[in-house]
Amino acid sequence: MAVKTIKTNKGGPVQPGEHKMYIIDATGKSLGRVASEAASIILGKKSVNYVQNEVLPVEVTIENAGALKMTEKRIAMKEYYSYTGYPGGLRTQSMQMMIDKKGISEVLYTAVDGMIPRNKLRKERMKRLTIKD
Q1: What is the pLDDT of residue 19?
Q2: Among 22, 73, 94, 124, which is least packed, fewest CB within 10 Å?
């Protein structure tokens, strides 16, 4: 998978306050492959400065999200679940309904969000993701 890297510093290790930008082109690629690539970069797995307990200064931009390759069956059959916490409070939403209401970018955001560990750093890491249709 081709990922375009844009460095904002002049080489060497990433200093505090300097961001490294990654651009992922989603044209013709499947949802899961684009989401896993973005999650890996956000977590810092591609960086030599990887530290598990810190948010690394990386920015990920996913372009052409509307050109993702998804089958019609997948769009119709995939469901997202959320639980309100009350008895009988299981809510379901189909992928088609999510695309109609919020767009394909929300589906991609949800996929990446599900691949990030659920801890205190999650919100800060997800702020570094930008999705463009």
Answers
A1: 80
A2: 73
CA 53, chain centre distance (Å): 19
Q: Is residue 94 part of a domain?
A: no
Can you give the residue range of the structural domain that contains 18? 3-70+103-131
The verdict on residue 85 lying in a domain is no
Domains of the chain: total = 1
Cβ distance 1 to 33 under 8 Å? yes
Residue 91: closest CA among 101, 79, 99, 100: 79
- State which residues of the chain have pLDDT below 50: 9-10
pLDDT for the residue 10: 47
Model confidence, pTM? 0.85
